[in-house]
Write a structure and sequence with these properties.
This protein is of the alpha+beta class. Helices cover about 25% and strands about 30% of the residues. Strands 1, 2, 3, 4, 16, 17 and 22 form a seven-stranded mixed β-sheet that branches. A seven-stranded mixed β-sheet has the order 5-8-9-10-15-12-11, covered by helices on one side. The longest helix has 25 residues. It is globular, with a radius of gyration of 20 Å. The chain starts with a helix and ends with a strand. One of its GO terms (molecular function) is catalytic activity.
């Protein structure tokens, strides 16, 4: 009994110590077809124009803009998130409108984005609060796909910078990778090779970073279009569960692995919840070897306003913008994820 009380006391000590620490929330969110209303002759965006099949107009765009901003504010739970990785944004304009023409203007977000060669014209981006993070380098890594004809998927975005706490003594270099791997179109198994190619782009870059700096702190976030145990992660990225007993600095750990066999996740397909969006971290963000640390498990942000009744399979599902060609005025077909970072006090 005495031993149990001691262990409980130690656990509570560390719990309240972490609770009282300054934290930096990292959000990953696939915002589903976040297009402006202007046609782009270089991409397949005609559906998302006033004269297109979906009749995408200024009113609908503005509603989407305000909804996405509202989600980002809400997931901060009292403060705006420090970092937001976004998937399926069309261009710089929608990002600029998001951070300057909504309540997010208060957060003073910086933007890292570049148009990618994706045929649909949807990209990844990173928003960061300027008071916490100073960007040192941004790299856009192409993902080339081979097949009958050479094509490209979305670029992988790498951002390197300095994260600084309120106490100037606490600062660390941090690497972000924001990804949107190729879809499962044509079948999950049949298309896995595409995601493996995207994962290899990330793995090669991660290996280079770790070669020159074995204690590199990094996060990989975004829509990887596959579960945690699929080959792109398990065999290419060699990810393990963040609940693993032994955490190695040089390995990558999936903070959402615990959701793998649960009927809960960020995306619902044919009545089954699953997590195809992920936040991966380097081992030193979990094992105390780095001054900066991460929570062990990501969380799915699923308030009722982001859900609607699933009349086909029962329960609830994400409240999306369109149901087929019919405008329903929701948010996205994905739910956002979040994970907190904090500086460990030695």
């Amino acid at each position: 009994m005495l031993r149990l009380c001691i262990l409980l006391g130690i656990s509570l000590f560390f719990f309240f110590e972490i609770q009282g620490q300054e934290h930096y929330r990292v959000v990953s969110y696939n915002v589903e077809n976040f297009f402006d209303t202007k046609p782009d002759t270089l991409t397949q965006d005609r559906d998302f124009t006033p004269g297109g099949r979906l009749h995408w107009n200024t009113e609908r765009y503005t509603a989407k803009l305000l909804k996405i901003a509202g989600v980002i504010e809400a997931v901060g739970e009292g403060d705006f998130p420090a970092f937001v990785g976004l998937c399926e944004v069309e261009n710089r304009k929608v990002l600029s409108d998001l951070v300057s023409k909504t309540q997010l203007a208060e957060a003073d977000y910086g933007i890292v984005h570049q148009d990618s060669p994706d045929p649909r014209g949807i990209d990844v981006a990173l928003l960061y609060r300027k008071k916490y993070f100073r960007v040192l380098k941004e790299v856009f890594l192409p993902v080339a796909l081979s097949g009958e004809k050479k094509s490209y998927s979305r670029d992988v975005l790498q951002v390197t910078g300095i994260l600084q706490g309120q106490d100037s003594l606490f600062r660390d270099t941090l690497h972000f990778f924001v990804c949107h791997f190729p879809s499962m179109s044509g079948g999950e198994a049949e298309s896995e090779w595409k995601r493996e190619k995207a994962a290899l782009v990330v793995k090669n870059r991660v290996d280079t970073l770790l070669k020159y700096s074995p204690n590199t702190a990094l996060l990989i976030l975004g829509d990887l279009n596959g579960k945690a145990n699929r080959p792109a992660q398990a065999f290419v990225l060699r990810t393990l569960s963040s609940d693993s007993r032994q955490i190695e600095n040089s390995r990558l750990y999936n903070t959402g692995y615990y959701l793998l066999h649960r009927n809960k996740g960020s995306y619902k397909y044919k009545g089954q919840w699953q997590t195809i969006d992920h936040i991966l971290v380097s081992g030193n963000l979990l094992n105390g070897q780095c001054r900066l640390q991460a929570g062990r498990r990501l969380q799915v942000f699923a308030p009722l306003f982001l859900l609607e009744e699933d009349k086909t399979y029962y329960g609830y599902k994400p409240f999306r913008t369109y149901s087929g060609p019919r405008y329903v005025g929701g948010y996205s077909d994905h739910l956002p994820l979040y994970l907190d970072l904090f500086f460990r006090k030695f």
